[in-house]
């Protein structure tokens, strides 16, 4: 998979498309064609390569097909090939540059979409997502608690401190989980309204024994700080889940 990612990133037009999605996510094909001196067919071809490499994901909203930057593979490439060589000051400067350059546009449509392929069964993904003994190993040391029924509350605890809470809006084991979300104790999120996280879990159409996990965070028009935290955190949660289920190891320690 690394080879496909590096191949996709090697083309400057594809890197430009990723930059465009980073600046403003959830774009249509027409939106992405405008800044590029290229035919519509050419842009479609590049988008297909990016999607096959897992660097973008797509969703149908009405008649439109929207394209989203998928940060999970990029995070994995960074963890494997970059972070162990990078100096801490360089990482800090990169983070500052990204923060200064980023434009935050809150639109009434799914904004943050992350997807990852895990070599396991959907049932095992579901267990990892709903078992507090498992979530504590990949969700920043937080254990999730709920009765897992529609309308039931859930809470995310780190030791004796509650980190987040919400309501189970829809549940269909092991395929789908929709939950409202609100941070309980993170500075800067006190005035944020409740947003929504949707987990979609499905067997891969082509590869037996592989499960695709898609996480959508939306309905956060009045929760900008929550959106920023989850935009950075969910890719790590998904990478941690993949590492745990495929190797039994913990990606992020105490």
In short:
By secondary structure, the chain is α+β, with helices and mostly antiparallel strands.
Describe this structure in words.
By secondary structure, the chain is an alpha+beta fold. It has two domains: 2-101, Winged helix-like DNA-binding domain superfamily/Winged helix DNA-binding domain (Arc Repressor Mutant, subunit A); 112-247, START domain (Alpha-D-Glucose-1,6-Bisphosphate, Chain A, domain 4). The protein is built from nine helices and nine strands. A seven-stranded antiparallel sheet has the order 3-9-8-7-6-5-4. A two-stranded antiparallel sheet has the order 1-2. Strand 8 (195-203) and strand 9 (211-218) form a beta hairpin. The protein is globular. The two termini are 29 Å apart.
Count of beta strands = 9
The biggest beta sheet reads:
7 strands, antiparallel
**CATH architecture identity of the largest domain:** 2-Layer Sandwich
Overall form:
globular
The helix/strand class is alpha+beta
Low-confidence stretches: 85-108
Computed over alpha carbons, the radius of gyration is: 18 Å
Keywords:
Alpha-D-Glucose-1,6-Bisphosphate, Chain A, domain 4; two-stranded antiparallel sheet; 2 domains; 254 residues; 9 helices
Helix and strand topology:
Layout: H1 2-9, H2 12-23, H3 29-33, H4 40-52, E1 56-61, E2 64-69, H5 71-82, H6 88-101, E3 112-118, H7 122-130, H8 132-135, E4 143-146, E5 153-158, E6 161-172, E7 176-183, E8 195-203, E9 211-218, H9 224-247
Antiparallel strand pairs: 1-2, 3-9, 4-5, 5-6, 6-7, 7-8, 8-9
Helix pairs in contact: 1-4, 5-9
């Amino acid at each position: 998979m690394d080879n496909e990612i590096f191949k996709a990133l090697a083309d400057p037009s594809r890197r430009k498309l990723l930059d465009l999605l980073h600046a403003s996510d959830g774009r249509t094909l027409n939106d992405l064609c405008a800044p590029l001196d290229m035919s519509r067919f050419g842009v479609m071809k590049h988008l297909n390569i990016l999607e096959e490499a897992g660097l973008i994901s797509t969703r149908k909203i009405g008649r439109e097909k929207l394209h989203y930057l998928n940060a999970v593979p990029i995070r994995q490439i960074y963890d494997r090939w970059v972070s162990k060589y990078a100096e801490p000051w360089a990482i800090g400067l990169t983070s500052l540059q990204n923060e200064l350059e980023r434009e935050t546009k809150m639109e009434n449509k799914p904004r943050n979409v992350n997807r990852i392929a895990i070599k396991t069964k959907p049932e095992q993904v579901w267990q990892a997502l709903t078992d507090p003994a498992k979530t504590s190993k990949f969700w920043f040391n937080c254990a999730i608690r709920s009765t897992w029924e529609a309308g039931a509350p859930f809470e995310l605890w780190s030791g004796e401190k509650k980190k987040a809470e919400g309501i189970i809006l829809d549940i269909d084991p092991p395929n789908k989980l929709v939950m409202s979300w609100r941070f309980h104790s993170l500075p800067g999120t006190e005035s944020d309204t409740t947003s929504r996280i949707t987990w979609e879990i499905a067997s891969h159409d082509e590869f037996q024994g592989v499960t695709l996990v898609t996480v959508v965070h939306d309905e956060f028009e009045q929760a900008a700080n929550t959106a920023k935290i989850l935009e950075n955190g969910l890719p790590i949660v998904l990478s941690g889940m993949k590492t745990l289920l495929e190797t039994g190891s913990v990606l992020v320690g105490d």
